[in-house]
Amino acid sequence: MPAPLPVLLPVLAGLIGAAAGVPLARSADRWVPAAVPALVGGAPAPEPRSVALRVPRPAPELATGLLFALAVLRFGVSWELPAYLVLAAAGVWLAVVDLRTRLLPDRVVLPTLGAGAVLLGVAALAGHDPAALGRAVAGSALLFAGYLVLALIAPAGLGMGDVKLAAVLGLYLGWLGWPALVDGALAGFVVQAVLALVLLAARRVQLRGAVPFGPAMLAGAALGIALLR
Fold first, then answer.
1. How many domains does the chain have?
2. N or C: which end of the chain has fewer CB within 10 A?
3. pTM for the complete prediction?
């Protein structure tokens, strides 16, 4: 268990996160895809049948600040904290971009995976807990394989960006244990269903409209991390 925290530490983390969210939001708003990648199986990516879902300001900044504060509350001043701060910042950027473009760029997904592996590896060495690192790697592989199967079955619903993001989230959830991995993965589907219903009710998408899955995956992972069994 993390040591008791000074009251102001989560507040300070939240302020730092909100400040970091300013350039993150600007970068996400300005990002333009170079090309539309193919989905699994070589099929061309379909054109979105929904209006681009731009995230209003200052929602990204507030989300980053909240996630930073929650990470400090969850992990305290610990070796694994930097890894989860990286995930929080990258997750907000990816959610904003995916809602707007229905793409999860490799230039952020893959470095987040690499940074997570390195930082959690350092945490495993510092905490003398190689089993946690092994579980994280296994979780990454399992979630990647599961999403790859789903993408092969339904390529119109999932792209390779979602599959690669699953590897990232599996790493971070697996570090915390198998229950967190299961809870975080399942929560993503629940969040996606709720998001789709809300957008339908608001008439932002049609019944057969495309709703990006990345933000729901990230939100589900956040729930799996926060609500650890």
1. 1
2. N
3. 0.87
